Structures are given as structure tokens and as C-alpha cells.
Amino acid sequence: MPLADHLREFRKRVVLAAAGIATGMVIGWYLYTPVFEALQKPVLAAAERDDAMVTVNFAGIATALDMQIKMSLVLGIVVSAPWWLYQLWAFVAPGLHRREKRYTFAFLGAAVPLFFGGVAFGWLVFPRAISVLTGFTPEGAANFLDAQLFMTFAMRLILAFGLAFVFPVVMVMLTWTGLVKGRTWLRGWRWAVFLIFVAAAMLTPTPDAVTMLFMAGPMVLLYFTAVGICLLRDRRRSKKEASLA
After folding, report:
1. What's the pTM value of the predicted model, to 2 decimals?
2. Averaged pLDDT, 167-178
């Protein structure tokens, strides 16, 4: 495709993905109350455990509304994940051969569960992060958590896990399209592991090493799993090319 057609295709996919996320925001708006109550439980548990004043504080008159809109957006991204992941694949698919386009279901079948699995894993790590951070509150002091910062903290942590778990599928996709060889991923494993730990330290908004390891460990495992699949793909492609020669 000419560059102009690529740009038009990219714009089309971005618009469709944004429309899906906007639709998901409507669902997220109605899910706001139960999700916020679930996110607040670790805070209430920390207050009861440490016998301290730990609570989420809405500092401004419009803070509650602003936070509900932002959470609806994040929930919209999560709910519409199958749709925007499909748009990602559909943008790449025109560059594939007709037979390779059949792998659409394989891509979605791997990317969607991994994204939701990462979100679920982040949801499980979140109470641990709250427990560690609120544990630094001195005895007799109060910890009023700003609602905006609290929500940014929660959504960033959960989304980071979801997106991190999808990256290995993107690796396989790039190898399947012939853009990156499996050997390239393997040769760069040291840099990959290093960058995974750096990304985990940056994406997890907690200062403790435990939360970082919770993210980095599965990412490293998924990375090497993806490398193995990429190498297998390259081997099959080489055998096919040799048989046709």
C-alpha cells in the first residue's frame, strides 16, 4: 500500500478503536460505583489493621465527577479491549498474505485473555501495594489519600499489567509478519530482561521491590515463551522455503 493509504488506514483504525472505547465508557459509567467500592476496600482494611485514619479524600467540589469520568474512560479501555486489539491486528493484516490473515482469531485468542489476565493480576497486586504504602504512615498520624492521585495510582497499576501481558503477542505478530526474526528477539534477551525490570519499576507506582517483581517475573516468562514461538515460526518458514527452492 502507498504511504497515503497506510495513513488513511491508520486513521480509520484509530477512529474505530476510539468509538469502541467511547461505547465502553458508557458501560464504565455504570460500573463506577461497584469498582470504586472494591478499590476502596484495601484502604479501609489498612485503616482497620493499623488503627489509623486512612481514607480517600475528595478535595474539590468537582473532584468526584472528574474522577468518575476518568475511571469510566479506563473501564471503557478494559471493556472494549477485544475491539481495539482487533483494530490493531486489522491495521497489520493488509500486509499479510491471504493464508496468514487466518491467524486473526489466533491473535485475538491469545491477546484478549492475556490482557484480561494482566488486568486481573494487577487487581490482585493492588491491595498489596496499598498495604505497603499506607504502612509507612507514622503512628498517631492520619493519611488522607487524594482521590485523584489514588485513582491514577490504581488505574495506572492495573492497566500497566494488562498492556505488559499483551506485549509478547505483539512480538509474535511482528515475527509472523516477517518484520522481526526470532533470533533477533533471542539475541537481545539481556537487554529485554533489563528493560522489563526498568519498565516494571516505572509502571508500578510503588517503591517496593515486591510489586516490581510481581510484574517483571511474569513478563520475563512471557517474553521467553514468545521467543520460543518466534523461533519455531522461523524454523517452519525456513523449511518451507528450502522445500520450494
Report:
1. 0.76
2. 81
